[in-house]
Amino acid sequence: MPEKLLPATIRTRVHEDAISRVTRFFNATTVETLNELFQNARRAGATRVDVTIAGGEVLVRDNGEGITEPAALLAFGRTGWDFETTRREDPAGMGIYSLARRPKVTIRSRPQPVGGTALPAWQVHLTPEHFLGRQTAAVEVIDRDSFAFGTEVVFEDDNASTGNVNCAARYFPLPVTCNGKDVDRIEFLHGAVHTEEWRGIRLGVHATRYTPGRRPEINFHGILVEDAGLPVISSMASTWHVRADVIDCAELELVLPARREIVETPFVEQLRTACRTAIYRGMLKADPAIDVPAEVHADALAQDVRLPIARAELSPWRPKYSNEYSTKGERPDRRALPDEPIVIEADMPPCDQQALWRAALRANSSHRLCAEEPRYNGYPWYDGLPKATKLATTAALDGEEIRIEEQRIRRNPPNTGRPDGITFTLETVGRDGATRSVRIRGDVAFPDDDIGWAEDLSVLVTAGSTITPGELADLMYDAFFTPSDHPEADSYETQVDDYRQAAFAKALEVLASAEEAMLSNLRTAVARWVAPYLPQGRDAIIHIRGDKPIEVTIEPDEGKDGTG
């Protein structure tokens, strides 16, 4: 068998199979098609674009230079634009293929004279078969005097609407009309607090509440590139981002033909750095006293932008609630540091946080507790503050000092009781690394940090505590209640009511007696399940004696007996 020889050289060529797939180069939506036609009009030097939608057809007309060579329409990859346009925008020569799926397309054009010589006006009718290269299209000469200079494209589209035109023209640089009415357009950098130009791109800095999701970041003459990875930087109060409006930038490469994505090149990283610097300048311009995280301050300084060091302010510390739906635990605004501040960094369950907070309030030291702010790590004033990294809780019960955290590890929490004293010890670490202790006397602690039903909780209340059953029940609710979202669970309101009643009964058991707790549960059961059935305005007496039948007596109505 003879050996097959390999070619000596190879070179790039466009295979006919590529032509057979041109209908997939664009998504064929009305907006995408209008975008491409608008871009062609702009490159052709048009000063306006007029769109008409009627009878299932869309007509797009511009007053540009027109098309001198009809064959260029179907020349795959051939642009036909002048050198300056090619240098500036790198056109793909494929935009006309956004029409490739349309059942019927008509293109008419009357070119501007060249060297004083008038050029013929013409028209061509195209179908998908022409775009796919399966048929040739006839070019017809038309009366140029009846057709103004420029190009007109008509295509079938039953779903086209003025909304499509509004979307395509929103950031387009030329005036656009739709059915004779001007289309509203918006400056892409509208609302920017600071703008600057960088290598042919206008950068606009915006301060807004940033929400994740798709958002336009780059405007290429009306075509939007979303999520291009431009930087988003947060100050302590707001979020800052940049929009990039392309004016004349050959270095920015977009994925052809639709230009909806950027090509990752070294230039793009330079653009992102320039955007960060622009944001820092915008921050300083909008608020010369702006507070920023330490990391942002350092990065801005590396870009020769000197942002101020954040003010020595922190939010007061507030305890977390077991119920994640509670709004009571929202962090207050930052305020000036108190005397002898303590930054709470310790990881504590809600039950310990609630008990510590009550103790701090009673000891008039709650104002010293400040919420941690990791974004300030790196600022000397913040790094120098004492940080509480650990909480230790002890209780003097039955002549013995119980270390609650150790008991939890052993899964052996002490029973509910009335200790002689409870102490919360915050271990703090200073800049020098030295450990110090801050002790706060308390009156309530929760030995068991497992979230469970109120009647099963371990609760310690000092013998001399003045806490009321209602206050203790509220504390237990805040420390432990977590609603169930199981499909078979009661409503949220019912779960809250049930837990509060169980917590109140447990509080009575701790502070008064088990009998008081039992009576409280009975009163609640009667109020919920019996009282609704009683005749309005009449009293009832219920007798429950061991195994005997339950007796219910209702006061007589209008002199009649009501025994049942």
Write a brief caption for the model.
25% of the residues lie in helices and 23% in strands. It has helices at residues 16-19, 30-43, 83-89, 128-131, 162-169, 266-286, 294-302, 350-362, 380-383, 404-409, 469-480, 492-511, 514-530, and strands spanning 49-54, 57-62, 105-110, 121-126, 139-142, 150-156, 176-178, 181-182, 194-198, 201-208, 216-220, 223-226, 232-234, 239-246, 313-314, 335-336, 342-344, 369-371, 387-397, 400-403, 421-429, 435-442, 444-445, 460-461, 540-543, 551-554.
Describe the protein's architecture and organization.
Helix 11 packs across helix 12 (492-511). The chain folds into 4 domains: 16-182, 2-Layer Sandwich (Heat Shock Protein 90); 194-302, no CATH class; 313-480, no CATH class; 534-564, no CATH class. It has helices at 16-19, 30-43, 83-89, 128-131, 162-169, 266-286, 294-302, 350-362, 380-383, 404-409, 469-480, 492-511, 514-530; strands at residues 49-54, 57-62, 105-110, 121-126, 139-142, 150-156, 176-178, 181-182, 194-198, 201-208, 216-220, 223-226, 232-234, 239-246, 313-314, 335-336, 342-344, 369-371, 387-397, 400-403, 421-429, 435-442, 444-445, 460-461, 540-543, 551-554. The strands form 6 sheets. Strands 5-4-3-6-2-1-7-8 form an 8-stranded mixed sheet. With 564 residues, the chain is of the alpha+beta class. The relative contact order is 0.06. It is 25% helix and 23% strand. The protein contains 13 helices and 26 strands.
